[in-house]
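Researcher: We plan to redesign the surface later, but first we want a full-length starting point. Tokens attached.
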């Protein structure tokens, strides 16, 4: 079940913990979500109906020309079960009239495959986009990212 979180929802903190666990970065709650209200980023989560676990999340912000996906992930034990597809479909349905953009490591093949399946395509390579890390995908060439875009309204027009 996809839920758009209210900035005062306690699950915001759980998503901040997941961001730290999945991406290996320090706690980002204060930086990413501010103190709630208008300063908070917008967020949806996919919640397991049976146990309330957060299976995946999407955090976005608005720019002048697009809706930019800032954080997007599926919890490892829920991968390959359609969670990422459901989250991206929700974004495309709600923001059908504006381009969606995101950055993804050039080494994150699974995510790139998911984004392409959802209609995203690469428009640029950003060199040294990610900071160096001792381990993981963000070292060496993995520091590079693709800027990807999806234009849902164009996808709809193509189907007509």
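Model: Full-length starting sequence:
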């Amino acid at each position: 079940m996809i839920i758009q979180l209210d900035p005062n929802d306690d699950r915001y903190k759980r998503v901040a913990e997941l961001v730290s666990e999945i991406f290996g970065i320090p706690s980002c709650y204060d930086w990413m979500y501010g103190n709630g209200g208008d300063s908070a980023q917008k967020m949806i989560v996919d919640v397991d109906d049976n146990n309330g676990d957060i299976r995946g999340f999407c955090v976005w912000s608005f720019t002048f020309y697009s809706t930019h996906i800032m954080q997007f992930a599926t919890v490892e034990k829920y991968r390959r079960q359609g969670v990422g597809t459901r989250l991206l479909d929700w974004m495309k349905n709600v923001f059908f009239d504006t381009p969606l953009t995101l950055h993804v490591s050039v080494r994150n093949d699974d995510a790139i495959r998911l984004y392409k399946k959802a209609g995203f395509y690469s428009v640029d390579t950003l060199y040294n986009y990610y900071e160096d890390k001792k381990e993981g995908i963000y070292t060496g060439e993995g520091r590079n990212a693709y800027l990807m875009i999806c234009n849902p309204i164009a996808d709809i027009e193509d189907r007509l």
